[in-house]
């Protein structure tokens, strides 16, 4: 079985990037923010990764992932995240938890605490306990849920932009979850209702780059969500459904490197103009289950600091 250390690195950098100085990176606000902030991710290895049930439009039991390719892509991703400067921890999956390779959904980490995911579909519910076990064993304290069986939360619906949390709802997370998160995490939460079922988690249509810039596909959301995001993001890169279908919004930023499953040409030029380095780390086997790089990398520093209360 391959190990993370045996993986190759596919760093894909446009050659003209190096010729740009930080000062003329092409944006009025200059280079990406906080390049040295810590970035820790938790990944789950694909020991039991498979597509045996169908809970999103991407999954088909007729199109199962290839085991060897899954390991190769996963090892490459670990290597690429580390090469970009992230600290990567990983844990093995369990038999039967075929979607556990997407640990982002098991909860929302806020400093040394976390809110456990509450999955919409029975097929994924056992992942929440297994992911929570890892977090509890590694020093994170659990924030309890109220006793309400109608509240659902999948971590892929929760994205941070500056001091604000965006919370997608509709296909997976329930609308009322946003109020609960805002209260227990002391944050303003903007809700974004999702209307296109192909993008059932918010992290497939909204990708924050820093606290001014984000890539997003507004056609995935209702009008209220579109207006809310427009008001929030000073420097957007708006993408169409065709571009979003490549999973380019399901990416992560480490310092000034953007690690992506695929990068459409227009997105690449905007990122390079903004001073980012693009690292494409293909995860095609995982896309068969409807998940990309953000889904595969639970951000342990999503809410590293609390917003000071007025
Ligand atoms: N097959 C998984 C599901 O349907 C994919 C999870 C994708 N996760 C994400 N954060 N977008 O739940």
Structure characterization notes:
With 310 residues, this protein is an alpha/beta fold. The chain contains 8 helices and 15 strands. The strands form 5 sheets. It has a 3-stranded mixed β-sheet. Strand 6 and strand 7 form a beta hairpin. The protein is globular and about 45 Å long. The termini are far apart. The site of arginine has 16 residues, from loops. The site of arginine (ARG) has 16 residues, from loops.
Give the strand tally: 15
Overall, the morphology is: globular
Using the coordinates shown, work out and report the CATH topology: L-arginine/glycine Amidinotransferase, Chain A
Structural class: alpha/beta
Mean pLDDT: 89
The number of distinct structural domains comes to 1
Q: How many distinct helices?
A: 8
Bound molecules: arginine
- What is the CATH H-level superfamily? L-arginine/glycine Amidinotransferase, Chain A
